[in-house]
Design brief:
This protein has 345 residues and is mainly alpha-helical. The protein has 14 helices and eight strands. The strands form three sheets. It has a three-stranded mixed beta sheet with strand order 1-2-8.
Length: 345
């Protein structure tokens, strides 16, 4: 890690608790591991020991980076190197929320402000943090994450963890992470993730059209419709829970817990009865749904339709779209939601 970047962390570390110092220490160690194990894509492509499958994905990523720069107006200093971490996830992320609230717990970080998650490079550390929060009575969700971004502060590499994705899925991931380096508003997780999601989805459409891949575009649009069905169901469930938590006519906390459980049971029942989202109900059987897990969906998708309307207002002109989004940095949360024509969920 360059000395200037390490020393920049010292003021924050000096005012932190021991637990927070440990968090930043593991974060610095994880970032240093990434740098240590990274090498230029060209070196990996020239290495006879690297599998052809990996080389094919790296060649595709070089194509995606070029398209992102020329057609999507995105900065592309990231993804010029390859990093094989020899594990399925880069980080494990902890989400938390009160037992009877859909408002996410937030953590403060230097440079980026408050975010709705806490990331760890070791699964054991993430699980320990999750257990600590559960003992405080919070709903907690801990999940592995395949992609990792420093939001343009450093040159992030391509990771082995996301090379298994389809071409369109890989393109969406690359465009999503590059979008964070284009515009990022400290402290507004929902805005940042939804903008990156909407911009990436539009980027995939344009890339597939430029390739002349009509079949790929139809398949991608079909996958988005399935995803939108999932998201609607999950966000509707979150709205029902929010209404439930504001009611005062529960005799005991156990009565409220039972009502909460019934809302999630209804969600899974609807998922099982609807073929486009039936896979979701099977995937969820092993992991319990709670307020924290719902927030992982809300953060990425609640504001996506608003960004779609904003892009349409600019006639699909990405430069104008990006300029207006960047200008929203000067606004507060309510003003941004007003422009997007979306209420907070």
């Amino acid at each position: 890690m360059p000395a200037r970047n390490w020393f920049a962390l010292l003021p924050a570390l000096l005012v932190c608790s021991c637990g927070t110092v440990r968090f930043y220490t593991q974060a610095a160690g994880g970032q240093m591991e990434i740098w240590r194990k990274s090498r230029p894509n060209a070196a990996a492509l020239a290495d006879s020991k690297v599998e052809e499958r990996v080389k094919q994905r790296l060649r595709l990523i070089e194509e995606l980076r070029a398209f992102a720069a020329s057609d999507l107006r995105l900065p592309t200093k990231s993804f010029g190197k390859y990093c094989d971490l020899k594990r399925p996830y880069v980080v494990w992320v902890v989400f938390a929320a009160p037992e009877f609230s859909v408002e996410a717990k937030r953590w403060w970080y230097p440079l980026v402000g408050h975010l709705k998650y806490r990331g760890f490079f070791d699964e054991k550390d993430a699980q320990q943090e999750g257990e600590r929060l559960r003992k405080q009575g919070l709903d907690v969700f801990v999940g592995g994450v395949e992609a990792y971004s420093t939001l343009g502060y450093f040159k992030d590499p391509v990771f082995n963890t996301f090379l298994h994705r389809s071409d369109a899925e890989l393109a969406e991931l690359i465009f999503h992470e590059l979008t964070h380096a284009k515009v990022f508003i400290p402290g507004d997780t929902d805005f940042n993730e939804a903008f990156a999601t909407a911009n990436a989805q539009e980027g995939v459409r344009r890339w597939l059209r430029a390739r002349g891949d009509a079949a790929g575009l139809r398949a991608y649009e079909a996958s988005l419709r399935v995803q939108q069905g999932n998201v609607r169901l999950l966000l509707d469930t979150r709205d029902k829970l929010n209404a439930l938590y504001t009611l005062q006519d529960f005799a005991t906390p156990d009565d409220r817990r039972l009502a909460k459980q019934r809302v999630f049971e209804e969600m899974l029942k609807k998922a099982g009865a609807n073929p486009p989202v039936s896979r979701m109900s099977m995937q969820n059987a092993a992991q319990k749904w709670n307020n924290a897990r719902l927030n992982t969906i809300a953060a990425y998708h609640t504001l996506v339709p608003g960004f779609g309307r904003l892009l349409k207002k600019h006639g699909g002109n990405l430069d104008a779209f990006h300029r207006e989004v960047a200008a929203m940095k000067k606004l507060d949360d309510v003003q941004r939601l007003t422009i997007l024509g979306t209420q907070k969920r």
